[in-house]
From TrEMBL:
Belongs to the RER1 family. GO terms for cellular component: endoplasmic reticulum; Golgi membrane. Involved in the retrieval of endoplasmic reticulum membrane proteins from the early Golgi compartment. GO terms for biological process: protein retention in ER lumen; retrograde vesicle-mediated transport, Golgi to endoplasmic reticulum. The keyword Cytoplasm does not apply. The lineage of its organism: Eukaryota, Metazoa, Chordata, Craniata, Vertebrata. This is Protein RER1. It is found in: Membrane.
Amino acid sequence: MSEGDSVGESVHGKPSVVYRFFTRLGQIYQSWLDKSTPYTAVRWIVTLGLSFIYMIRVYLLQGWYIVTYALGIYHLNLFIAFLSPKVDPSLMEDSDDGPSLPTRQNEEFRPFIRRLPEFKFWHSATKGILVAMVCTFFEAFNVPVFWPILVMYFIMLFCITMKRQIKHMIKYRYIPFTHGKRKYKGKEDVGKTFAS
């Protein structure tokens, strides 16, 4: 390997200016993502706002229906992954009785773990909206199509996919949402201290 053959290095062995720029840009981006992690509601409100702006843009331009359809399919795919367990219970089971609680001491109860965590779901959905928004600036993506057919096909696809997912949830008895589930708390601290 000769001098300067490694990725991002200049002839003298130091990282090139372009490589350093994009590395720094990636670090800043990751820093903003890390800071936004605890603000779930704010993140989703921003994403819904971007989605609303995108829909207004498509409505005003009267085009880019294929891009919107592709965005809808992408979001549906993300949503199904968000609702699905990380490990498919149908592959883990030998019997058709469904999952059960541990019966032996060496077995372990495993809570519901998503295939696609909420943060990655939000991040991918937001990136998808931004990519679709960028596509509306290029006429090449404005393929003429009769949009009511796309809407009907998307509704049918959504209903069939969700019906299959709900049947899977009922069969293997899992609920992908924590809202409404019982939360167990320990004893509350009464705040009394002992003086020595």
